[in-house]
Amino acid sequence: GDSVTQMEGPVTLSEEAFLTINCTYTATGYPSLFWYVQYPGEGLQLLLKATKADDKGSNKGFEATYRKETTSFHLEKGSVQVSDSAVYFCALKPRAGGTSYGKLTFGQGTILTVHP
Amino acid sequence: DGGITQSPKYLFRKEGQNVTLSCEQNLNHDAMYWYRQDPGQGLRLIYYSQIVNDFQKGDIAEGYSVSREKKESFPLTVTSAQKNPTAFYLCASSRGTESSYEQYFGPGTRLTVT
Q1: Residues 6+ apart with CB under 8 A from B1
Q2: Most buried in the list A1, A14, B4, B6, measured by CB within 10 Å?
Q3: Residue B103 DSSP label
Q4: How far is A40 from chain B, CA to nearest CA, in Å?
């Protein structure tokens, strides 16, 4: 079945450091890929998405590129802020067909803490 | 403003009692979802509904039930048969089930059963 694997956390960085959170996936065909962010005590918010190979999603300084050859969708940010402290989830949604149609499959989440 | 409402934010129940969690959306979305989140884990799908009066079991449906009588509403009942009901429950909706449609999440309900 479909699966998403994220780098193990937690990740602790100083403000203005470079961020990478690795995400790889296993899926049939060409799924859409998403990054969601969850702030403490809240629901998830969509951060960015990519729907086909080589697409780059970007939002609020975060970027991720859909790499079909390495089945990866790593999240990056050039200079993190304290306000970026949150839990980040990588997720995939399959294309039409099959029993997983319409369902999001999530990674286990990566906790990011940014210190001043 | 359009969005998803979940109430209450915190819910406490005694073991053996059924409890219903509310989820309402005014985004005119066809599809709705319920997830469970446990500490240090990703989200696991409980039930989803692609259209009114229709719903399907997700990966961990045992001990839960849902209804979808209205497009806007998708309540989740946690029954006494759910062995470990204490968790954070998240409701989501999307325009449809197409791959490119993202899901929008509510603020969640934290259920504690003692």
Answers
A1: none
A2: B4
A3: P
A4: 11
* Nearest-angstrom CA–CA distance, B60 and A114: 34
Q: What average pLDDT does chain A have?
A: 92
Q: What is the largest CA-CA distance in chain A?
A: 47
- The stretch B80-105 carries a mean pLDDT of 90
On whether the CB atoms of residues A30 and A95 are closer than 8 A, the answer is yes
A67 touches chain B (CB under 8 A): no
Both structure tokens of B52 = 């009114």
Q: Which pair of structure tokens corresponds to residue A34?
A: 């998403």
pLDDT category of residue A8 using cuts at 50, 70 and 90: confident
**Chain B environment of A106 (Cβ under 8 Å):** 42-43
Reply yes or no on whether the pLDDT at A75 is more than 60: yes
Over the stretch A27-50, which tens digit does the pLDDT of each residue have? Answer: 988 899 999 999 988 899 999 999
The answer to whether A95 contacts chain B (CB < 8 Å) is yes
- Cα distances from B51 to residues A111, B13, B21, B58, in angstroms, run 34, 31, 19, 15
Q: How far is B93 from chain A (nearest CA, A)?
A: 11
Instruction: Check B99 against A44: CB less than 8 A apart.
Output: no
Q: Do A109 and B40 touch (CB under 8 A)?
A: yes
